[in-house]
Input
Amino acid sequence: MKLLLIGGTGTISAAISRRALELGWELWHINRGNRSPKSWLRTEGKAPEGSGKFHQINCDISSETDMAGKLSGLEFDAVADFIAFTPDQVQRDYRLFKGKMRQFIFISSASAYQKPLASCRVSEATPLSNPYWEYSRQKIACEDFLMKVYREDGFPITIVRPSHTYDERNTPLGVHGKKGSWQVIKRIIDGKPVIIHGDGTSLWTMTAAADFARAFTGLVGNIHALGEAVQITSDETLSWNQVYQAIADALGKPLKAVHVSSEFLAQAGPDYDFTGGLIGDKANSVIFDNTKLKRLVPEFCAQIRFDQGIRETIKNILAHPELQTEDPDFDAFCDRVIAAQERALKEVLNK
Output
């Protein structure tokens, strides 16, 4: 199998890259070469087993003329774009790869599903509509274009909708700052309170990137996946309280949770886009129905339970200082929000 990934070094695509090499596939990346292959190729200090070969095309894909030149004479079994977010970007992909591959896989997002949800059980048949998040609306527009060229021109597309996927480099959270999750981890380590949106009882699904990769590679080259949209998630459902407790347990620290409404966070922190990220996504209870995925990839079953996977993530982050990016602005924001809520409660009780 000859697989080309546009991107290739992110949370999901790095895991897929390792899996493809384990399977003995010929793997190609298109990216600007900002990350050494060593930074994504190895996990737990070990290179993936298998006989796969890796090739890298260093190019900014937005430079379409340069990209077309570097693709001259190349053909692939499948091409997957992990960094397309707007219709003009998938239109560019259509021009670049038409006739050069047998399957084009677009990485969309489960956040594109209808908000507010009519039912917490979500399948590929759930309508796409998200008035709260521009990111999701752009993904929907990308899907619309690709389905159009599939119907009208036979462009062989498969749409994949991930939800909240994590790997050994990042801790999945509901509320965090612009610099990632470390500041929340640090607050737990330091014994400070952390914010959980809502009352923490809404349901969510976390998917380990290694599990996602096993499902994804089952869709590559799968003729039954052409013209289809497929969501890939774990079947494990957790409340946000359980998610944060599992993280605190992995750290060996008590969890000091402060519950703050998503609406309040959205208004208090406009710089963090909680309107999209919470009200348009994580504040909703979601249970994913993966029947379609399992029909297409019968051998797939998510193997990594969240409490097990997050222990490995925390262990890796604590062992690598370069993953510990502090965010004093977000830390101060948390302190202000928590203090404001405490003051409001005291004022109400005094009356």
Observations:
- Residues 78 and 103 are 5 Å apart (CA to CA).
- The first strand starts at residue 2 and ends at 6.
- The chain has a mean pLDDT of 94.
- Residues 328-350 form the longest helix (23 residues).
